[in-house]
Each structure stands twice: as C-alpha cells, then as structure tokens.
Amino acid sequence: MTELMNKEMKLDHLLKEMRSVVIAFSGGVDSSLVLKKAIDVLGAEHVKPVVVKSELFRNEEFNQAIELGRSLGVDVLETEMAELEDDNIVKNTPDSWYFSKRLLYGKLDEIKEALGFNYVLDGMIMDDLEDFRPGLKARDEFGVRSVLQEANLYKSEIRELSKQHDLPVWNKPALCSLASRIPYGEALSFAKVNKVNEAEKYILQLGINHVRVRYHHNIARIEVVEDDLATILKNKDNITLRLKELGFDYVTVDLEGYRTGSMNEVIDTKATNLV
Question: What are the backbone dihedrals phi and psi of residue 10, each rounded to the nearest 5 degrees, phi first?
C-alpha cells in the first residue's frame, strides 16, 4: 500500500467519524476533493457544501463552484458576505485576513447550527503551513476542521487524488482573494479590486492559466510563469492598451515570475501582531 493510499484511508476515517459536515466550498481543487470524499464516505444527505459570494472573488468562480457541486450530486447552498463593509478588512493590514476568515467561519458556523450538523470543514492543506496564514486563528476559534491537513496531504498529492477521482478541477490553478493583489496598508475598494480582476481576466483569455496582476497605485505588476513570458511579450501592446483603459499608467512584468503570496514577502510575520 502506497503512502498516498494510507493518507486517503486516514481522510476517509476522519470523515466517517464526523457523520455530518458543512463544507466551505470554493470550487478549487482542495475543497473539491473534500466535497467528493465527504459525499463518498457520508452520503450526500449528510454533506452541505456552501458557496459564499464576495466582492473579493470573481463571480465566475462562484457560478462554477455551484455547477461543480451540483454535478457531484449534492445540494449546494449559496450565500453572501459583504467583506468591503467590514472596516477591519478594508484597512488591508496583515490582520485583515483574520477578520475575513472570521466572517466566513462565523457564517458557516451559523449554517451548521441551523442544519444540526456536526462540523464545518475547510480546504486548508499542508502547504498552507509554510505561508503566512493569520486566518488559522479564526479557524481555531470556531472549531473548523482542516481534514486535508489532518490527513497530512500536500498539494501535489491532492491533485493526484483529484485526478484519480475524475474531478475536472484536479489541475486548476490556486484561488485566492483579489485583496491579495493589493499591498498591505492600501485601503481596499471595489474600484481597486475590480481593476485587477478585469486586468487578470483579460490576460487569462490569452491562454495563460497562472497570472497575478499586483496593484501599485498607477502601476500594474504582472506575474506569470516563465513559459508564459513569450505570450505576454507577443501581446504586450494589447495588454498595455487594455490595462491603461482600466486606469493603470504603467504596465510592468515581474521578472521573478508568478508566485502566490508575493505581497507577504515585504512583511515580517514574526513582528506582526495578530489580534
């Protein structure tokens, strides 16, 4: 028996003990695997995926998550949260991630109680422990379970299991709040978030799968993987024109390339005082 098979067995055992679960479902590969395994182990009637609409995530992702959940044979609950109405989130400090997750987990906890279910699950994985994750404090406050972490699963293993279970999102790029494109200390607004959202959507339609457009006032900093640099340069005139239409004065390419959490590179996480 392989190590991955042992980890999947542990995941199944954890889920079986829970009996009924509410799942924070984004439609990404991690939460999709949690949902698929929960349905297989517990049955659809004991599983409630919740898709949360927010100004800080693309509407397309919300709709795709609903469609994916339904395709797996489970009833999907749709809800919303107004992150840009919370001053602690709008301030956009490292602590804002805590308040964002607290808002999410609070809503999911209310749904769990209303349904009479036992646990709320998220899609946190082992790799997340290597990055700055102030939302972990909110998770622990609400007793949310991260079963993929508890089964010691890493992203590459989750993609492999998702592929084995025929999940169409097995190779989907990582999702993250659009707030991650804006530097800490720069207050969030719908206008700023929408600017980077529309910029990324334009670049994605060029056939690029991994892109971040970081907001630096009037400068757009584009991150793509090295293999996609040629596509960016080939389309540089159209990209520049579109991003200037969106309000950027300067359009740049980050030579360090695509990477998640690049805005965290400038903060000292040890010195950050989380609430």
Answer: -65, -40
User: Could you tell me how far CA 178 lies from the centroid of its own chain?
Assistant: 9
Length of the chain: 275
The catalytic position among 176, 204, 253, 274 is: 176
Distance in angstroms (rounded) separating the CA atoms of residues 113 and 117: 6
* CA 89 to centroid of chain Cα atoms: 16
Q: How many CB atoms lie within 10 A of CB 216?
A: 14
Number of domains in the chain: 2
Q: Is 176 a catalytic residue?
A: yes
For 182-212, how does the pLDDT look when each residue is reduced to its tens digit (9 = 90+)?
999 999 999 999 999 999 999 999 999 999 9
Q: Which domain holds residue 248?
A: 189-253
Do residues 131 and 225 both lie within one domain? no
Residue stretches of the chain with pLDDT short of 50: 269-275
| Closest by CA position to 24, among listed 6, 50, 63 | 50
Q: In this structure, is residue 171 part of a structural domain? A: no
Q: Structure pTM?
A: 0.89
Question: Do 98 and 211 reside in the same domain of the chain?
Answer: no
What distance separates the 2 farthest-apart alpha carbons in the chain? 57
Q: How far apart are the first and last CA of the chain?
A: 44
Q: Based on the domain organization, do 243 and 137 belong to the same domain?
A: no
pLDDT at residue 267 in the model:
55
Strand partners, 234: none
Tell me, what's the pLDDT at 265? 60
